[in-house]
Amino acid sequence: MLPQFNDTEIAFKHQSNHSLKQAHFLFSAMGNPLVTKLGIAATQWAFKLQLPIQSLIKSTIFKQFCGGETMQEAATTAHMLHQYGVGVILDYGVEGKDSETSFDAAVPEFMKAIEYAATQPNIPFISAKITGFARFALLEKINNKEVLNEEENAEWQRIILRLHQLCQHAKANNIMLLIDAEESWIQQPVDDITDLMMATYNTEKVVVFNTFQLYRHDRLAFLKTSHQKALVGNYLLGAKLVRGAYMEKERARALSLGYPSPIQESKEASDLDYNAAVNYCLDHINSIVVFIGTHNENSCLLAAEKMQQLNIASNHPHIYFSQLYGMSDNISFNLANGHYNISKYLPYGPVKDVIPYLMRRAQENTSVAGQTGRELSLIKTELKRRKLS
Ligand SMILES: Cc1cc2nc3c(=O)[nH]c(=O)nc-3n(C[C@H](O)[C@H](O)[C@H](O)COP(=O)(O)OP(=O)(O)OC[C@H]3O[C@@H](n4cnc5c(N)ncnc54)[C@H](O)[C@@H]3O)c2cc1C
Questions:
Q1: Of 283, 344, 345, nearest to 318 (Cα)?
Q2: For the chain, what is the mean pLDDT?
């Protein structure tokens, strides 16, 4: 049977009336572009001035989108999700630290997360950003094919070593590692390093996934090339499919620097490529492990329909669905109810360090037409249903 995404009783059974009302308030506020814009500016300003706003952030937007400040706090959320058949992707959400000390410190932090995940029944993945281990400016230089000096070459080798350490540890602990996609102007080295890790560690089963942003018009072709490369190299492709989170930034940079935007011309074009990428992966499911990361109900439904057509079981070990924690519970919990492999991206980390992630969530819930409206109407339906029953 195909999943239904409008069953709000299943979607929100993990939420109390109080937390549903809080979510209602938050999504209503984020739905107003002016409130979001002012909120983002005020938050950045308050952190710069070291004003004591952490507890306000923690009890509102942080609570909605993050698992906790520490792995222990995130563990409580992970246990709750497990009760409903929903898995977790641990995401150490600290961003924007740009020093060798913090890159070195990130390795044991991620290793701890891998070890913890290995002890849990519902944490098959952790996710990582290469910029958590590498200097942004160096990645940009490599992306631009600039020649590196001796020191920079040594720095690049240290980055590769950090990734090897992580992947080895993930493989030894039977945990899968999702490498996020980032801005297009650093993505080439991110792809290169991820390909290298896939070729090394994905020989028997998938340990490492690269991320394909289908809002870029060149990524469907890149997915196919990556698959061919994996076939020739005799390893499995781990393909995490997303639409992409940096659209405004990408377009603005392309415009200001005068190069053609890498982003598709319309939402429909992104949707077409996204769904084509899902189909491509499902058609080659013996040699690809696909991770369908989306809040788009239609894409999830199309994937489920295609699985049915191809006679693929809903819990096939090469197919995973995922949504971000705090969003689209109607998809996640209804998929779990239909026994699909489903996990929530669960970021954790100190409040001040996950601010860039939270700002992206706030912006996304304002700029994505329909998304906030959809969340709100589902929450309203459920609140009404509970009142009547
Ligand atoms: C589990 C998970 C992991 C993620 N990991 C990453 C990651 O590693 N890197 C990353 O960049 N993002 C990541 N994202 C975010 C993702 O890329 C999207 O920003 C977000 O999920 C919204 O897209 P959607 O498919 O869920 O929903 P939809 O609402 O169907 O699509 C919205 C998206 O469509 C695209 N879009 C909107 N308008 C237009 C337009 N006019 N023209 C062209 N395209 C348009 C944009 O990408 C926008 O975000 C992740 C999301 C999830 C759920």
A1: 283
A2: 93
Q: State the Cα–Cα distance between residues 53 and 40, nearest whole angstrom.
A: 13
Pairing of strands 208-213, 237-242: parallel
Per-domain residue ranges for the chain? 67-354
Tell which one of 65, 243, 365 to mutate to probe ligand 1, the residue whose CB is within 8 A of the most ligand atoms.
243
* pLDDT tens by residue, 200-219: 999 999 999 999 999 999 99
CB count in 10 Å sphere of residue 55: 10
Q: Quick check: CB of 323 below 6 Å from ligand 1?
A: yes
* Per-residue pLDDT band at 266 (split at 50, 70, 90): very high
Question: How close is the Cα of 322 to the center of ligand 1, in Å?
Answer: 12
Helices then strands, counting H and E runs in the chain, come out as: 17, 8
Cα 237 to averaged position of ligand 1 atoms, centre (Å)? 21
In the chain, DSSP assigns E strands to 87-92, 125-128, 176-179, 208-213, 237-242, 288-293, 319-324, 342-348
Atom of ligand 1 nearest to the CA of 324: 53
> Ligand 1: does its nearest atom lie under 6 Å from the Cβ of 213?
yes
Distance, in Å, from the CA atom of 65 to the CA atom of 358, rounded to the nearest integer, reads 7
Report the distance separating Cα 221 and Cα 187, nearest Å: 15
Burial code (b: 16+ CB inside 10 Å, e: under 16) for 307-329 equals beeeebebebebbbbbbbbbbbb
What does the alpha-carbon distance between residue 29 and residue 35 come to, in Å, rounded to a whole number?
Answer: 6
The phi-psi region of residue 331 (left if phi > 0; otherwise alpha if psi is between -120 and 50; otherwise beta) is: alpha
Please count the CA atoms within 13 angstroms of the CA of 254 that sit on its side-chain side.
15
Whole-structure pTM value: 0.94
pLDDT of residue 55: 85
How many A from CA of 193 to the centre of ligand 1? Answer: 23
Ligand 1 mutation pick, 184, 218, 242, max ligand atoms within 8 A of CB: 242
Q: Hey, what CATH topology would domain 67-354 get?
A: TIM Barrel (3.20.20)
